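Protocol step 4 of 5: obtain the predicted structure for the target chain.
Materials: sequence only (see below). No template structures provided, no constraints applied. The aim of this step is simply to have a reference model before the mutagenesis design in step 5. Sequence pasted as it appears in the construct record:
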Amino acid sequence: MSARDVIMQRLKEKKSPQEGAYPLPPVVTLGDQDASPERFEASLALMGGRMLPLQDGEGIEQAIKRAFPELRNLCTAVPEVEGTLRIEDLETHEQADTVDVMVVRAAFGVAETGGVFLSEVELKDHLADVHLAQHLIVLLSKDELVGNMHNAYQQRSEFRMAGYGVLMSGPSATADIQGVLIRGAQGVRSLSVIWA
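Step 4 output (structure tokens):
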């Protein structure tokens, strides 16, 4: 066996820790505890993300098509949206590279940062594929907001139990030394959130 094969075999043998298997250090609750949708929306906008409100009588898929009229390939990881492709059907990164818009549901959101938490559970083990999509639509329940990262650590088992996870607070971005901001540099060009 190659060194790579040995490492991969050991990783496969490991399992996610069970709740309470490893005691977590105590966390002092700091910062603003406001977990309101208004705070989340303001923070998301500050980070370059946007809310995608549903118009009267409009479904989620209709709102997506309104926001992205040139949409050809809509990949979905949620039952609420049919799309043109299910995330489970992505077999190669090349397939994911053709996705215009990816729709996922976040486990929870962090109001202080406008961040959404996605793990292998929500993404069906397709984390890399989400970053290859051009645009990301995140469905988020207003009931699944925490005030800040301290609250996420203390209150959300998904945060502690995920094999891997990502907190996204907007589209990918980078800036050079002169302060020129480029969005979509290493990942999605836009991140939109729908209350659903």
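Step 4 remarks: The longest strand covers residues 135-140. The chain has a mean pLDDT of 88.
Proceed to step 5.
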